Amino acid sequence: MAQKPANPVRKFRCYTRAIKNARLLKQHDPTTFAKDKNSLGFGTGVPMDILQVLHRLKPDSPELKDHGPVSEFLRKHAVPGPQGWKR
Fold it and tell me: Is 30 domain-assigned?
């Protein structure tokens, strides 16, 4: 008789930070990041895995090597982190 795992691990993702970072991109640079509301990353064209950590990335981060507009945005703008979190 096969046994089921005692406690299957559920992966839960919260997209609140990604949504806030997407709004910031669209607000400060709509010509670059608000072109198509149906594109990935809540219409920014930025992948979700980057949006979720955008507030922690530096402009020269390896994660941004294929995302020049995001890197350029970070050179000009500070992205606030979660309340109470300091960079």
Answer: yes
Other residues' Cβ atoms within 10 Å of the Cβ of residue 22 = 22
The whole model's pTM is what? 0.77
Domain contains 62: yes
Cβ-proximal residues to 75 (8 Å cutoff; 6+ apart), any chain: 59
Is there a domain that residue 4 lies in?
A: no
Q: Is residue 84 part of a domain?
A: no
Averaged pLDDT, groups of 10, the chain, 87 residues long: 56 81 95 89 94 94 95 94 63
Gap between the Cα atoms of 52 and 22, Å rounded: 9
